[in-house]
């Protein structure tokens, strides 16, 4: 059987690859479930400290949900469609958004619908200059269902998000960069090297500190500023007993490179 989400460990960085290139890496239920299994395995593995997520082939990162599959769920009624399709997709994007290790999407082609929603949910994203983005769900008479009506406005602002949500228009990598959907646009041949370079620059630092930052930012986005500051204080306090704090401070005082152990 085809491995729907391939995984390779590159020196502490897990490369996860959506692997249905003949279907433009459309997100069928089995692929979503497999991606969630891969994320569980990465979280348990202390040797893996970051993720790069991309798509197989040169045409697509992911063209979105598998329309043929989820249309069958829709035919069976709202309860079935919500359970099989919507909840599954929202669980996937929420898992990526709240993942305790840095996740970087390398957008190698089409990022439509669910593919765009994965990009919005991930912590960081690098795009090929040959990629393209869209929120095309309105073209088939539905709203986005994997978090796109919520995360895109938070990323880019209400009016700019609604322009793409209501028209379904395709937008360029340069527009995605301007909007803040991606962090960089690079030539196609440089996509994975740039994504790995970004991951490696993060890996120089304490994995515990990175995890605390991710938690504080993700939780704080949906809180008031006072609640967010309390979250920040909580994450700082959780770091104080760690070896990484002592190592970071001792290394700075001694003017040497720190050696973090993630404890």
Compact summary:
The chain is of the alpha/beta class and 263 residues long. It is built from eleven helices and ten strands. The chain starts with a strand and ends in a 9-residue tail after the last helix.
Structure description:
It is built from eleven helices and ten strands. It has helices at 29-44, 67-75, 78-97, 114-121, 148-156, 158-167, 173-179, 191-203, 207-220, 225-239, 243-254; strands at residues 5-10, 13-18, 50-55, 60-62, 103-107, 110-112, 124-128, 132-134, 170-171, 184-186. The strands form two sheets. Strands 1-2-3-5-7-10 form a six-stranded mixed sheet, sandwiched between helices.
Overall average residue pLDDT: 96
- What fraction strand? 15-25%
What structural class is derived from the secondary structure elements? Answer: alpha/beta
Task: Please trace the helix and strand order, writing H or E for each element.
Answer: EEHEEHHEEHEEHHEHEHHHH
What distance separates the N and C termini? 39 Å
Major sheet strand order: 1-2-3-5-7-10
Radius of gyration: 19 Å
Shape: globular
Total helices: the number is 11
Q: Which stretches are low in confidence, meaning pLDDT under 50 for 5 or more residues running?
A: none
Q: Please count the beta strands (DSSP E, at least 2 residues each).
A: 10
In helices, the fraction of residues equals: 40-55%
For the largest beta-sheet, the strand count, sense and barrel status come to: 6 strands, mixed
């Amino acid at each position: 059987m085809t491995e729907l989400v391939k995984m390779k460990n590159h020196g502490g960085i897990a490369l996860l690859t959506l692997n249905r290139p003949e279907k433009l890496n459309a997100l069928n239920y089995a692929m979503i479930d497999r991606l969630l299994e891969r994320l569980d395995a990465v979280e348990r593995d202390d040797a893996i400290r970051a993720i790069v997520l991309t798509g197989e082939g040169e045409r697509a990162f992911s063209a979105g949900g598998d329309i043929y599959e989820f249309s069958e769920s829709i035919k069976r009624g709202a309860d079935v469609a919500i359970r099989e399709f919507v909840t599954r997709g929202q669980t996937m994007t929420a898992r990526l958004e709240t993942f305790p290790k840095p996740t970087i999407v390398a957008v190698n082609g089409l990022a439509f619908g669910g593919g765009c929603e994965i990009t919005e949910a991930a912590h960081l994203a690098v795009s090929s200059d040959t990629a393209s983005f869209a929120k095309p769900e309105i073209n088939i008479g539905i709203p986005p269902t994997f978090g796109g009506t919520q995360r895109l406005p938070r990323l880019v602002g209400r009016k700019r998000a609604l322009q793409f949500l209501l028209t379904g228009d395709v937008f360029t990598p340069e527009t995605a960069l301007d909007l803040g959907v991606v962090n960089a646009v690079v030539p196609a041949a440089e996509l994975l090297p740039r994504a790995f370079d970004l991951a490696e620059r993060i890996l120089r630092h304490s994995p515990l500190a990175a995890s605390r930052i991710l938690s504080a930012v993700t939780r704080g986005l949906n809180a008031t500023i006072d609640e967010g500051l309390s979250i920040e204080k909580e994450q700082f306090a959780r770091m104080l007993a760690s070896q990484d704090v002592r190592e970071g401070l001792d290394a700075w005082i001694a003017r040497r490179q720190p050696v973090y152990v993630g404890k």
